[in-house]
Amino acid sequence: MRKDDAGRKFAVLREGEATSGGSRMTSNAAIMEAVVGIDDVVVDRALAASLGTASGDELVGVCHTILRRRKGEGVLGLILYYHRLPGEVREQVLGMVDRLFTPLRQAASRRNTDGPANVLEIIRRAKATKLSYLVGEQLRHGTDVLRDTAAYVFVELAKDCVGRHGDEGSIEADDAAYLVKVVDEAMVLFDTHRHPGVLVAMCGLISKGMRESMHVLSVGTHSAVIPMERLLRQAEDEEVRRATLPLMGVGTLSNAALEGVRTMIAIGRFGDCLDHWEALRMEKVSGRLKTLRTCEGLWPGWGAAEGMTSKQRRGLIAWLDAIPMRWIEKVDHLKQLSRWDDKMMRLMGLRMLIRLATEYKEEVAHDAIAMFSGDDDEQIARIALWHLISCKYKGLAKILASLVNSQHESVRVLAGRHLGPLGFKRLWDHWDVMDVNKRMAAGRALIKISPDFHVHLEGQLRKANVQIKLRAISMIDLLGQGQFFGQKLIQLTYHMDNQVRASAIKALGTVESQEAAKIIESALSHSNDRVRANAVEAVAVSQSPEVLMKLLELAKGDANRARANAIGVLMQNQPEEALNELKRMLIDKRATHRTSALWLVEVLGLVEVAKDVVEMSVSDPSKIVQERANRVVHELMRMMNDTAELELTEDQAGVGEAFMTEGEA
Fold it and tell me: How far apart are CA 259 and CA 264, in angstroms?
């Protein structure tokens, strides 16, 4: 069909529709059916024109015909009359917006029509940031109404790029870049439109960089600076509130931003400001806060955190860290964090406390950190405990004692491992000034919670100082731990000091062995009254009737340990023969026997064989024996030089709070 025939046919059909008395719906259907197959621009123009007058089912039919034909003039009509289209057709238009760039650009240029306004609405609803340049054109060249609408579209698209009410943005970063570029240009050309909505949109996009915008705002003479200062001070727009901290780093706006912060705190909207609290890490922002002489009006209190998001609450910690508040006041505020459920918030506060405690080295900061050692989160509790251990916190003993029953395994292990040495030292230092009941309760509790208790006690027992040995033996005896130190106590019953011998005999009463029983029975005939008295008491405990084997046989035997013990026993009544046997043992061809002999020399402090030991430390064929001999030489030298009495040190916490009771363990 020729083009002029098609036009005449469409015109006749329309005329027939106007004059016919038949069904209008039938006429419309007939018209639409007739034109679908006509490939003529006149038809598309006619269909587009009818969108301005058609209504109801007729309008729906025209729209569907245009959508089926997909011709430029018809689609342009859909945009020009978008405001009149049925809802379902509008959604179809929005769904195909990526294919409508040309008709959208054409419609935006149709002055004195609804086209420009419709284009802005389509871009907003479709989130078509690639067409942001069309919005910028309306901002600069449109009517006042279109300029307002364009600014509104910028703000709405900005919200979609960065998210709303804590949600992530719905526009991908690559697509958001189109909007950022156009808004940046609008800021540079602010003098051509002077619309504050652009400033709000720029604030909404500030997390995207807005390089050009930040540059022009740093120029004091730029036309955007004064209105931006006004928006910051008023703090009425959410986007402006969220951009306040980043803008605080712009020299021309820093004062206005600070005033805005005070306004937000006053009206209870400071949380919005903290959406971009990471800006506090910027040197220009933190530096500006450091120049302040007071933080009056800059701290909202923890009550403000009730209505904040988790991110904002964490920002509140960073804000507290940044403002020029006295450190001791910051510590007081941070102590209150232990009641908040937000783990990251508590962790940030704890790290800040640790930094303050390290910087100012005051107990009040350590006291605050101690509150976190019982935290429900294992990581936080462990970090707090590690700090208290490293700084040797004055109340560490009580903290450790309470944490050995922590709900967190790693904290229990850490507390137990450090409570052992610390608890043992406290028990050791205060042993002589504690009454018997206190000694028993503290000692038993420590044995229960410290796996290294016996290791620490053995270390004291090995020392040459007589007073130290006596205190160690006293602890073994009173706490009934002789079974762990049977051989050591047996060796000490041969010590040259009668008081050590006597104490060792008494402690042997807690050892259930035939060897111990025989030694005790032998001590009943000891020449020293104290030893005999203690032996009587020990025999009553052990109740062992066994008799010792002949010491001379043991002293010549093949069992190196028994041989050394026998020589040690012989040192009491037959020192010359015992010493001879010891010398023979020191040169025995078997390294195990030489090692046991050195052990006996070290335990008993036998300076009589010092020369022999010195020679072994140099010439013994076994390297292990040489090393052991060298250690014994040093022990003998220390024993001969060490005549000072043991000085007890008073723990900082005082005797009264030294240990928990056994029940508390």
Answer: 9
Query: 30: pLDDT confidence band, cut at 50, 70 and 90?
Result: low
- Nearest Cα neighbor of 246 from 282, 220, 211 is 282
Q: What is the pLDDT of residues 256-315, one digit of tens each?
A: 999 999 999 999 999 999 999 999 999 999 999 999 988 899 999 998 988 899 899 999
Q: Assign 34 a pLDDT band (cuts: 50, 70, 90).
A: low
Q: How many other C-beta atoms can be found within 10 angstroms of the C-beta atom of residue 5?
A: 11
- The per-residue pLDDT for range 331-385, each reduced to its tens digit, is 999 988 877 888 999 999 999 999 999 998 889 999 999 999 999 999 999 999 9
Q: Give the 3-state DSSP-derived string for 201-260, with helices as H, strands as E and coil as C.
A: HHHHCHHHCCHHHHHHHCCCCCCCHHHHHHHHHHCCCHHHHHCHHHHHCCCCCHHHHHHH
| Rounded Cα distance, 476 and 504, in Å | 9
* Residues of the chain by 3-state class (helix, strand, coil), percent to 5: 75, 0, 25
549 pLDDT band, cuts 50/70/90, is very low
The b/e string for 151-164 (b: 16+ C-beta within 10 A; e otherwise) is bbbbbbbbbbbbee
Tell me the three-class secondary structure of 501-547, residue by residue.
HHHHHHHHHHCCCHHHHHHHHHHCCCCCHHHHHHHHHHHHHHCCCCC
Concatenated DSSP letters of 292-352 = -S--TT----GGGGGGS-HHHHHHHHHHHHHS---HHHHHHHHGGGGG-S-HHHHHHHHHH
User: Which among 574, 578, 598, 575 is positioned nearest to 586, based on CA atoms?
Assistant: 598
Helix (H/G/I), strand (E/B), else coil: 39: coil
Q: Taking every pair of C-alpha atoms in the chain, what is the biggest distance, in angstroms?
A: 148
Q: Where are the alpha helices (DSSP H) in 36-172?
A: 41-50, 56-69, 72-80, 87-95, 101-108, 115-126, 132-141, 144-162
**What are the tokens at 2?**
């020729």
Q: Which of 609, 613, 610 is nearest to 626 (CA)?
A: 613
Q: Which two tokens stand for residue 286?
A: 């933190």
Distances (CA, A) of 124 to 74, 86, 103, 207, 593: 22, 18, 16, 21, 95
In the block, which residue shows the tokens 């005449």?
8
Is 596 in contact with 564 (CB distance < 8 Å)?
A: yes
pLDDT bin (cut points 50, 70, 90) of residue 26 is very low
Quick one: how far is CA 111 from the chain centroid?
59
596 in Cβ contact with 560 (< 8 Å): yes
Closest CA to 546 of 569, 578, 570, 512: 512
* Separation of alpha carbons 38 and 55, rounded Å: 23
Please tell me whether residue 619 adopts helix, strand or coil conformation.
helix
DSSP-assigned letter for residue 114: S
Rg from Cα positions in the chain: 46
What does 414-426 look like in DSSP terms, one character per residue?
HHHHHHHHHHHHH
- Nearest Cα residue to 199 out of 145, 188, 208, 116: 188
Cβ 464 vs Cβ 639: under 8 Å = yes
CA–CA dist 20, 439 (Å, integer): 118
CA angle 408, 411, 412 (to 5 degrees): 85
Which pair of structure tokens corresponds to residue 301?
A: 């209190």
Q: How many Å apart are CA 509 and CA 553, to the nearest integer?
A: 25
Q: Cα(336)–Cα(324) distance, rounded to whole angstroms? A: 19
Question: How close are the terminal C-alpha atoms of the chain, in Å?
Answer: 104
CB neighbours of 441 closer than 8 A, spacing ≥ 6?
A: 659, 661, 662
